[in-house]
């Protein structure tokens, strides 16, 4: 099977490697492959294992303790997930100053590209390519869910891809473990069980998933959401994959997310209009408006299933419409592909297809391997309370406990041990 083209840069265009990285001699840094607010990612060669890896430098780790907690969460979750469709942490370099370190180096599996970059390349894919990529993504999502984790930020940039169509899910910084807080006994005495539950619900409805891939129940700030939020995100990614078929999109320049909204409930630009829901929906680029243009407005039954009255009122402001037939948007896609997409992009999460149902779709009948669809041996339980703010000392201690998983000889400074008793 012909595989997606791997983009190759000329030597002159390859970014020069950084010269200030404090990493062990076993790693030979080659060139920069990514950058963001967290720091940089470089391709490197592991002389000990004799293979190419990615090294992610996270700088100013403790500058913002909320972001710091997200970094810790991602590291802790990845250290506990072992699956071929989830990126694996290979090493965490031991910090030079265990008391005062402010940067971390994560050694990760490397991939040829990611979906976001793939969507921008001037190449086309067959439906066989697309369903293979989608199947591999769903297998990874299934394992994640059986481990008791909602990813909450599935988007093209967080789906790594190789030329053989293998897919690896990455970036678990906004993920949540759906389990009782590991250290609930450490909560202050005046925080009872009800308060813990309130905190959990508040954090679950926090900053999750990039707007274009955000499920309606998250947009409307519903508190009791399920793993169906990740299925919606996968559906949005699937739609973009179908846009890579020449039969569906004659030019790669025309490719775009299926729901490219510019604003999102419940943010209002003027507090004077806080109770005027018509003010929120002005303009045609509201995220829900973009969804309703494609799928149609929800039924009264589905609206009544919403938890909050303000969400019901907000939905009622949008003019009723029927949406479109997705087969007309993707005329080159098979009936099986369109039907699966329709079942993923359903407003009501209780009516949305599950991951197991998606894997059983007729679309995958020629490529499905049940032996690959493994489940986690147990639910992931983090060694810290993921639902409670942590001090810098607690965070440092937790980071070093994760480092110890790779370097058992690391001795945590006594000051940090005392702070975490």
Provide a descriptive summary of the structure in words.
The chain has 421 residues and is α+β, with helices and mostly antiparallel strands. The protein has two domains: 11-110 and 391-419, Phosphorylase Kinase, domain 1 (2-Layer Sandwich), CATH 3.30.200; 113-372, Orthogonal Bundle (Transferase(Phosphotransferase), domain 1). It is 32% helix and 12% strand. The chain is built from 15 helices and ten strands. The strands form three sheets. Strands 1-2-3-5-4 form a five-stranded antiparallel sheet, with no helix packed on it. It has a three-stranded antiparallel sheet with strand order 6-8-9. Strands 7-10 form a two-stranded antiparallel sheet. A hairpin with a 5-residue loop joins strand 8 and strand 9. Helix 3 (127-146) packs antiparallel against helix 6 (228-242). The radius of gyration is 23 Å and the shape is globular.
Keywords:
alpha+beta; Phosphorylase Kinase, domain 1; Transferase(Phosphotransferase), domain 1; 5-stranded antiparallel β-sheet; disordered N terminus
């Amino acid at each position: 099977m012909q595989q997606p083209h791997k983009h190759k840069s000329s030597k002159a265009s390859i970014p020069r490697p950084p010269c200030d990285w404090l990493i062990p001699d076993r790693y030979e840094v080659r060139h920069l492959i990514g950058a963001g607010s967290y720091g940089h990612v470089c391709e490197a060669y592991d002389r000990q294992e004799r293979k190419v890896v990615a090294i992610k430098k996270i700088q100013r780790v403790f500058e913002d303790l909320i972001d710091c907690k997200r970094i810790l969460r991602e590291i802790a979750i990845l250290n506990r997930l072992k699956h071929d469709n989830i990126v694996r942490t290979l090493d965490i370099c031991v910090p030079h100053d265990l008391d005062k370190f402010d940067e971390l180096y994560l050694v990760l599996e490397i991939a040829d590209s990611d979906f976001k970059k793939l969507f921008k390349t001037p190449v086309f894919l067959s439906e066989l390519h697309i369903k293979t990529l989608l199947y591999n993504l769903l297998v990874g999502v299934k394992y994640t869910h059986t481990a008791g984790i909602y990813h909450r930020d599935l988007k093209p940039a967080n789906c790594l891809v190789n030329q053989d169509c293998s897919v690896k899910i990455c970036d678990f910084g906004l993920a949540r473990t759906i389990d009782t807080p590991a250290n609930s006994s450490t909560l202050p005495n005046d925080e009872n069980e009800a308060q813990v539950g309130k905190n959990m619900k508040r954090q679950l409805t926090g900053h999750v998933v990039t707007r274009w891939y955000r499920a309606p129940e998250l947009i409307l700030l519903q508190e009791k959401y399920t793993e169906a939020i990740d299925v919606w995100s996968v559906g949005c990614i699937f739609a973009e994959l179908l846009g890579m078929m020449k039969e569906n999109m004659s030019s790669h320049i025309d490719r775009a997310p299926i729901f490219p909204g510019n604003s999102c409930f419940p943010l209002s630009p003027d507090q004077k209009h806080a109770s005027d829901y018509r003010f929120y929906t002005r303009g045609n680029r509201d995220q829900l408006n973009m969804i309703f243009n494609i799928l149609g407005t929800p039924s009264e039954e589905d609206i009544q299933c919403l938890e909050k009255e303000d969400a019901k009122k907000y939905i009622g402001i949008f003019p009723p419409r029927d949406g479109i037939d997705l087969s007309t948007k993707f005329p080159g896609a098979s009936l099986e592909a369109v039907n699966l997409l329709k079942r993923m992009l359903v407003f009501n999460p209780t009516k949305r297809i599950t991951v197991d149902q998606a894997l059983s779709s007729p679309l995958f009948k020629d490529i499905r391997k049940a032996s690959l669809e493994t489940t986690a041996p147990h639910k992931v339980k983090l060694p810290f309370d993921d639902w409670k703010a942590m001090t810098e000392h607690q965070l440092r201690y937790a980071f070093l406990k994760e480092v110890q998983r790779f370097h058992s000889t690391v001795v945590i400074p006594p000051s940090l041990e005392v702070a975490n008793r």
